[in-house]
Amino acid sequence: MTQPMKYERAIVIGGGITGMLAAKVLSSFYLEVLIIEKDELSDAPENRLGTPQAFHPHRMLPLG
Fold first, then answer.
1. Among 23, 26, 28, which Cα is nearest to 3's?
2. 3-state secondary structure string, 16-41?
3. Would 50 disulfide with which of 12, 39, 57, 61, CB 3.0-4.6 Å?
4. Phi/psi of residue 17, each to 5°?
5. Shortest CA distance to 39 belongs to which of 48, 52, 28?
6. What is the pTM of this model?
7. Beta-bridge mates of residue 30
8. Domain boundaries, the chain
9. Distance separating alpha carbons of residues 26 and 32, to the nearest angstrom
10. Residue 62 vs residue 22, higher pLDDT
């Protein structure tokens, strides 16, 4: 079975869950996949400035 031809480079805009999934799929067809993300990604879980929906102030209240 022959290997499919790989293209040189793909660019994914956004490093969220869908951007990461798109990059994973594209990595089968491209030699290099570049992810462009405006936020700095950390190794530890934390809120990101680019995801305002990630911060929920009600989780700090004792009655929820």
1. 28
2. CHHHHHHHHHHCCCEEEEEEECCCCC
3. 39
4. -60, -40
5. 48
6. 0.63
7. 7
8. 1-39
9. 9
10. 22
